[in-house]
Amino acid sequence: MKYQFLNITSGRSKIVLFIVLILFGYLLASFTALAILKFAGYNHIIEHLSNPDLTDINTLNAFRIVQIAMHAGMFLLGPALYLLLVEQNPIQKLGLDRNPYWVNYILIVILMLVCLPGINFTHTLNQALHLPGWLSGTEKWMQEKEDSAKQLTDAFLAMKSYKDLAVNLIMFCFLPALGEELFFRGALFSIIKDW
């Protein structure tokens, strides 16, 4: 399937278009998330998103809607639009027209097992990081943001039903994996390679 809506050859033009499409996806996702929250009757929660009550199921559902919409808008819609508008054959650009070798699957599992200690080590380094005294305000702000993100993640992972599990699988597994492939391998790496 070969088609191309925009004939852009300059690397700079491609990166500018990509950034514009990412921002478009972000704005569209923001408005869509707010519209869904208003339509679903979460008006009272929208006002309290900056200081949420994470024990309230409605607040968690509102955060799930926002999280899914934002991820879909920025990491799926923007790169997908770029691939459809600029690339002649998006399927080939993503490498979906060929089967990977079975050895690659084994290498992926080995690489994951080898990388886990490194990931844990960098987490330990991050926890032990202390900024100089004159940046104590920044360090306090960073710690507060990290703590609030951990509280939100813990609230998401406290599942009470299969529906919560399904939503979490979509939110934490499916969308990030698909978005990473479209954003990086599909669009950004091809732009950099062409540039």
Summarize the structure.
With 195 residues, the chain is mostly helical. The chain is built from 7 helices and no strands.
Distinctive features:
195 residues, mainly alpha, 76% helix, globular
Task: Describe this entry's structure for a reader.
With 195 residues, this protein is mostly helical. It has helices at residues 11-39, 43-46, 57-86, 90-93, 102-128, 136-157, 162-194. The longest helix is centred in the last third of the chain and has 33 residues, at 162-194. The two termini are 24 Å apart. The model has no long low-confidence stretch (mean pLDDT 82).
Which helices and strands occur, and which strands form pairs?
Layout: H1 11-39, H2 43-46, H3 57-86, H4 90-93, H5 102-128, H6 136-157, H7 162-194
